[in-house]
Amino acid sequence: MKKLRVAVLMLRDFVPPDTIEGLTEDELGPWKTEYDVLATLGGLGHRAHPLPVFDELSVIREGLAEMKPHVVFNLIEEFHGVGAYVPFVLGYLELKRQPYTGCNPYGLMLTHSKATAKKILKHHRIPAPDFALFPLRKVVRRPRRLPFPLIVKSATEHGSVGIAQASVVYDDKKLTDRVAFVHEELHTDAIAEQYIEGRELCVGMIGNSRLQAFPIWEVHFDGLPEDAPKIATAKMKWDRAYQKKIGLKTRAAKDLPAATAQHIYRLCKRAYRILGQSGYARMDLRLAPDGKVYLLECNPNPHLEYGEDFAESAESAGISYDDLIQRILNLGLRYEPEWKS
Ligand SMILES: Nc1ncnc2c1ncn2[C@@H]1O[C@H](COP(=O)(O)OP(=O)(O)O)[C@@H](O)[C@H]1O
Ligand SMILES: [Mg+2]
Questions:
Q1: How many angstroms separate the alpha carbon of residue 62 from the centre of ligand 2?
Q2: What does the pLDDT look like over 248-262, one tens digit per residue?
Q3: What angle do CA 298, 299, 301 make, to 5 degrees?
Q4: Range list of H helices, the chain
Q5: What superfamily does domain 197-334 belong to in CATH?
Q6: Taking the domains of the chain in order of start, what are their residue ranges?
Q7: Ligand 1 in reach of 168 Cβ (< 6 A)
Q8: Which pTM value belongs to this model?
Q9: Which of 25, 81, 102, 120 is the most buried (most CB within 10 A)?
Q10: Which fold has domain 5-106?
């Protein structure tokens, strides 16, 4: 295996310490993914260095000039605090003819707004919940075709930001209130979707043109109170103490009929291509009690921390974390943007 120079593009606040020895799980910081990726690249024999950024392209230009990386390992999900700017940063790398890992700018843009992605999916008849978009500063008027219950989310935030039990609404008053909450607290457009009761599944995927999907993963909400909507709230995704309290479990989905699993894989692979994905992504789905599958969203560059769902599902397909990181590097090097053709 060729030893590579790798610049790991990360937010300057997430540059990890050199070692995590002696730290407890609770002391690990928001930089854990950055640490895992750097340590793994080093362990694989590559020369990997952080390339920390916040709001300056010149830092990237200088970093590339200095390191001359074979490939940039992209771990940024925002630039100057704005998620929508990440594709532009990758666009800059493409203009510099610099290979990078993960999703390309086009695929990031198509999936940035949940509404845009759903419109494209609908055109291709990929089943997704019906929805209405409520742009900032516009009056909330629910289309009649959209019955309750609905779930109200930010159209552009990810990681369940702004999603709580109160996001599931059963009347127009609560809908208006929750949309106002998204507008005022998150300063983004809001989307209200048909609330799909059922099993929560996700599928990790990797590839540019030839795709591999990892085993279907399931989130179990058993520890939640009986009457609480079974959804992945922000608290559930990010609060370790709360996860322990409710005994949150994620693992390979059991007892899925073979035809359903096959249908899910086919759907995910089609969606990956239709939404212009490359590198790696995770599809979030719901399986309703009547057997119908809905694609909730496509997440390009999903959370890559060691031990989290994406890496765990890869592991259960026989792909170790080392392998996974190496494959992501290879895919970055092999990706063919316009400048290569
Ligand atoms: N239409 C829906 N029906 C049922 N649950 C939903 C729906 N949309 C979102 N959820 C719940 O909210 C969680 C987060 O929503 P998602 O659209 O995946 O946004 P995020 O980008 O924040 O992950 C999902 O994992 C699921 O538990
Ligand atoms: Mg999601």
A1: 35
A2: 899 999 999 999 999
A3: 145
A4: 32-43, 57-67, 86-95, 105-112, 114-123, 172-181, 234-238, 240-246, 258-274, 309-316, 321-334
A5: ATP-grasp fold, B domain (3.30.470.20)
A6: 5-106, 129-194, 197-334
A7: no
A8: 0.96
A9: 102
A10: Rossmann fold (3.40.50)
For the segment 42-62, the average pLDDT, to the nearest whole number, is: 98
> Which ligand approaches the C-alpha of residue 83 most closely?
1
**Cβ atoms 166, 234 nearer than 8 A:** no
Q: Which two tokens stand for residue 66?
A: 């200095």
> Would strands 217-220 and 249-252 be described as parallel, antiparallel, or unpaired?
antiparallel
User: What is the β-pairing status of strands 280-287 and 249-252?
Assistant: unpaired
Atom index in ligand 1 nearest the CA of residue 299 equals 21
122, 133, 152, 160: residue to mutate for ligand 1 pocket, most atoms within 8 A of CB: 160
Domains 5-106 and 129-194 share a fold: no
pLDDT of residue 223: 86
Contact 84, 52 (CB under 8 A): no
Q: What are residue 50's phi and psi, to 5 degrees?
A: -65, 140
Report the residue among 231, 235, 248 best suited for mutation to probe ligand 1: largest number of ligand atoms under 8 A from its CB.
Answer: 231
CB distance 33 to 59 below 8 Å: no
Domain 129-194 class, CATH top level: alpha beta
Nearest ligand to residue 224 Cα: 1
Would you say 11 and 55 are in contact if contact means Cβ atoms under 8 Å apart?
Answer: no
pLDDT value of residue 280: 98
Specify whether the CB–CB gap between 279 and 298 falls below 8 A.
no
Distance CA 309, CA 283 (A): 12
Q: Rg of the chain's alpha carbons, rounded to an integer?
A: 20
